[in-house]
Amino acid sequence: MYLTFFKKKENSSLGAIAWKRFKRNHLAMGSLYFIGLLSLISILGYLITPDQTPYANEQILEFTTKKPGFKATILRIKKNEMEKSGNFIQKMVYGEKNLYQIIPVYKWCFVGHDLKIEEYTGSSPNNGRITYISLVDVAYALKQQTLPQYTLDSVRFTTINDEQQSSSLQDIKKDILQNNLVRKTYLLGTDRYGRDVLSQLMIGSRVSLSVGFISVLISLVIGIFLGAIAGYFGGKLDDFIVWFFSVIWSIPTLLLVIAITFALGKGFWQVFIAVGLTMWVEVARVVRGQILSIREKEYVEAARALGFSNFRIIFKHILPNVIGPVIVISAANFSSAVLLEAGLSFLGIGVQPPMPSWGIMIRENYGYIILDYAYLAILPGIAIMLVVLAFMLIGNGLRDAMDVRTAER
Q1: Full domain range(s) for residue 102
Q2: Dihedral sign (CA 76, 80, 197, 40)
Q3: Banded model confidence at residue 194, pLDDT cuts 50, 70, 90
């Protein structure tokens, strides 16, 4: 039995051992599950958001700054526009254009061939405008040059596709009740433009996670390359790269990001590059230090004696042994990238409206903190805090799991 135990122990890779130790850290594992859930929400995007329009930007001004749990009835009137077919991926990534005109409704009833509505105003008493809308106009996209022809209990009409259709009034009323008169619930309320706060938060997570992922990727590519060259070759090349480290390190990170943003311009992709170009120094310093400590090891000398190229020795034999600290730094850099993106968006030089971003949501609503609508700024702030905390806990868990001084005996 003991021989079997030690055999299994010997066959376990260092990565498997580190993963087993990481799983015993409940805070780190919980943070990993949280980031996984947030990543799933970001990937699915508009497929699961209540507001599936591009940028979750459906504005209903009558629903301005409504509290969480607000419910209302809306009438969706079919626009006389051709439907553009889109695939599953396009809807998931870009959203779907709303083919309906939205009218908030306070009261409604069927009157002959028309739908009578009292528009919602949000005041008490409501005192909304009374409007009569043809049932066919509500349910179908019609050819504007032709008028529906009504009989006693049916109607003939021409759709925008030049299709002649006939339907009973009862069937049209049933379709309107099922598809056009919708009871809508805003779980987290609405902002000052009447947009769904929950949808804004869900789509805003895409920006934060995307900036973190791509910025960390950029920093890894630059940092590992420069750190590996400096640490392995040494000499004047090492002196020059270390001097370059020091120059970049001496500039405050936020000021450097702002300067790069001004040089590249405002926008989604510019934020990726600006943040990524300021986070590589720490990666490069750690990689250089690790390579300096192991470049004279026996296995490196053996690789040189066998005639392997410097490129192969660095990337095949040295870097795999320094990847642990780099992973830990990357987790911390991810949280820093989320904070930087939120700060840039708050200052108005990051992601630009109407694209949702947690930083933009705070900027638009921070004035409500002293009013009854403080949650409009607090909710995105809590989202930023949770993401940063999660990545810091993951980084600490990885550090402990990969620390040989606390390894299992």
Answers
A1: 70-186
A2: positive
A3: very high
Percent of residues in the chain assigned helix, strand, coil, to nearest 5: 60, 15, 25
Contact 208, 267 (CB under 8 A): no
Calculated CA dihedral for residues 184, 189, 195, 199, nearest 10 degrees: -80
Count other C-beta atoms under 10 Å from residue 215's C-beta.
28
Q: How far apart are CA 326 and CA 286, in angstroms?
A: 7
Q: Are residues 230 and 363 in the same domain?
A: yes
Taking only the tens place, the pLDDT of each residue in 142-167 is 887 778 888 878 888 888 888 888 88
DSSP character at residue 407: -
Q: Are residues 311 and 382 in the same domain?
A: yes
Note whether 148 and 293 are same-domain residues. no
- What is the rounded CA–CA span in Å between residue 157 and residue 358? 47
- Burial of 257 by CB count in 10 Å (0-12 exposed, 13-18 middle, 19+ buried)? buried
pTM of the model: 0.87
Separation of alpha carbons 379 and 349, rounded Å: 22
Residue 145, phi then psi, degrees to nearest 5? -80, -15
Q: Is 139 exposed, middle or buried (0-12, 13-18, 19+ CB in 10 A)?
A: buried
The tokens describing 262, both together, are: 């001004």
Coil, strand or helix: which one is 338?
A: helix
Q: How many CB atoms lie within 10 A of CB 168?
A: 12
List pLDDT tens digits, range 49-61. Answer: 999 999 999 999 9
Task: Write out pLDDT tens, residues 359-381.
Answer: 999 999 998 988 889 999 999 99
Compute CA 178 distance to the chain's CA centroid, rounded to the nearest angstrom.
32
User: What is the tally of structural domains in the chain?
Assistant: 2
> Is 393:27 a contact under the CB 8 Å cutoff?
yes
Domain assignment present for 60: no
Task: Please tell me whether residues 239 and 144 are part of one structural domain.
Answer: no
List phi, psi (to 5°) of 307: 85, 15
